[in-house]
Design a protein that fits this description.
This protein is of the alpha+beta class. The protein contains ten helices and 19 strands. A six-stranded mixed beta sheet has the order 4-3-2-1-5-6.
Length: about 350
């Protein structure tokens, strides 16, 4: 279904007369992958869309309008309201929506917050989005595994992160998350931003790559020389937890179902508290995580939604991005040339990335 029509159908059911979209994520969703950003450190872009029942208006500045119109909204039936770059777009928007019942994805005077409803609408992917997501998944895993194979002891975490950004960016994507930790930092911090620390033996690389607004998420580990038995076991146990979570990633199951299954498996492996130190992942798509899996999230999984789970144990984590299908989940960030751990869950095979050991 056309994404604008999906919003308009929702407006008709709920009585909204206009929907204001200001975030980069929703601009990308509605335009099929268009980009309205300049600054990447804020969710808001530089071009706003207002969806009415009969027309769509783009509000942007004279400084931005040519690129937005020619490169991001080409061929689209769109009205433009242009302001000077010295002016505040809020005033122009307020005039357009005055007196109407309005929903917005970011706070705006007189508008109601409909961000949750928009997440629900945008997270069931159509054929074009799935094609885009497969490309994003390929970029994510190629960048991650290519960099991992280039590592040498003595590199700093900053240097490794720079390589991740370079590999992702070469494909027209952006690494919105690039986490790197080495050696003892892997055990101390589950969410480690890179530092100037030098790699000795063990490295964790995490990348969340965004293109077309869609985000591919994956983690890989490298070890120089023989790893300890404990590390090997934790990598395998992490893969085991992840495989069980993937086995639950089916239409009709809820986020809380997957959370509870993960906790059960953690406990069965002798790690009843390790889940507390890193979230377990959840629904993904136009954000690295749209909704986290917790005991209180009972949203049901649907066909063509994407998920990224990331169970972790000391020294290990397992993370990929997967698409819900009628059969087993499709791994969008499937490893290309990487050690694989094969897990059987209820007679079905799940391949998870293992530890790349470099002698």
């Amino acid at each position: 279904m056309n994404h604008l029509q999906k919003i308009r159908d929702w407006m008709e059911k709920t009585g909204y007369e206009a929907v204001l979209l200001r975030t980069r994520a929703n601009f990308a969703w509605v335009t099929g992958g268009g980009q309205n950003h300049i600054l990447l450190s804020t969710p808001q872009g530089v071009a706003d869309l207002i969806i009415f029942p009969e027309r769509v208006v783009c509000v942007t500045s004279e400084m931005e309008v040519r690129r937005i119109a020619e490169e991001e909204l080409t061929g689209r039936d769109m009205d433009f309201v242009t302001i000077k770059w010295t002016e505040n777009a809020d005033h122009a928007i307020a005039k357009l929506i005055n007196g109407k019942k309005v929903g917005s994805d970011l706070p705006f005077p007189g508008a109601e917050d409909i961000s949750s409803a928009l997440v629900t609408m945008r997270c069931v992917l159509d054929a074009n989005q799935i094609s885009q997501y497969r490309e994003v998944g390929r970029i994510t895993v190629e960048a991650l595994e290519n960099v991992a194979k280039k590592l040498v002891p003595g590199m700093t975490e900053h240097e490794i992160a720079a390589l991740l950004h370079l590999e992702v960016g070469a494909h027209g994507a952006r690494a919105i998350v690039a986490l790197v930790s080495t050696d003892e930092r892997i055990y101390r911090f589950r969410h480690p931003i890179p530092t100037g620390k030098v790699l000795k033996q063990h490295a964790m690389l995490v990348v969340c790559a965004e293109k077309y607004g869609l985000v591919g998420n994956a983690t890989r580990f490298v070890h120089f020389g023989k790893p300890s038995d404990e590390l090997r076991e934790n990598v395998e146990k992490c893969a085991y937890i992840d495989a069980h979570m993937q086995a639950m990633t089916q239409p009709g199951h809820t986020l809380s179902d997957v959370f509870n299954e993960a906790i059960r498996v953690y406990e069965s492996l002798g790690f009843p508290d390790e889940w507390r130190y890193l979230h377990l992942g959840g629904l993904t798509g136009y954000a690295s995580r749209e909704i986290f899996a917790t005991p209180d999230r009972h949203e049901r999984m649907e066909l063509n939604q994407a998920f990224a789970w990331n169970p972790a144990l000391p020294g290990a984590k397992s993370e990929d991005t997967l698409l819900v299908t009628e059969d087993a989940p499709e791994i969008l960030t499937r490893s290309i040339d990487w050690p694989i751990i094969t897990i059987q869950v209820e007679g079905r095979r799940y391949d998870r990335p293992g530890l790349l050991i470099i002698d």
